[in-house]
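Subject: BtpA/SgcQ family protein

B.,
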Amino acid sequence: MSRLLLQVNQGHRPVVGMVQLPALPGGANYRVGTVEAVIEAARSEAEILSRNGIDALLVQNLGDIPVHHKTSVEQVAWMTRVTSEIVAAASCPVGLNFLENDAHAMMAVASASGADFVRIKIYVGAMLTPFGIESAQAHVAIKARTALGADNVAILADVHDRTGTPIATGGFEEDVEFALRLGLADGLVLTGKSYEQTLDMVARARAQYPKAPLFVGGGVTSENFAEAMAEANGAFVSTAMKDSGSAVGRFVPQKVQDFMAAARRAP
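Prediction pasted inline below.
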């Protein structure tokens, strides 16, 4: 079983810190660089998070915005190398996400690197994103996981992620059902366009599936952690721990410590 989901099953509410990579070769913003430099930057972020109590890590290619719908061979190669290094160095579960929503690539990297989970932003239905229309990846993810023998890699599926607009959907509840029952996701990640909408989405999903692992995908702070976890099982966090007030910036060790202390105190 996924170590992240084992934490959930044991009653913990894991905080997943985001390790955001600079542009990779094949990405729109890549300039000449080395994989060693990317590894060094990623390990520095991962070490700050790990030393200050984070429960899990997610490696993501944030520097590749704007994105295409499919990853390049170079992106896959470098992500595999970087993720492998983070997995080897970290004592906590490590997952990954390609912003390109390329589930086949994510599962391939996870199986090769020893990653614990993948986060797939458009898993069922279709979404209009700033970079075009993206469609369901459930069939791709499950087929790849089976073919690669990667049953221990958990699939966390976003439903109606805030970065896009659902197309021709039967509604939020229907897509929650599709992701869990038909798409066989192991858990959901829910993020509305506002914090209030996020809480509403989590409450509605919990009413449908009382035992499903539900993660809040953004907007969680040390001040609202307890409220956010009233119905959720964990959270992905970046901005609240950085020096910039945005996902782009450096982690501040004291902010990580303060966040994790608040998470541990939360009822």
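The chain is about 40% helix and 15% strand.

T.
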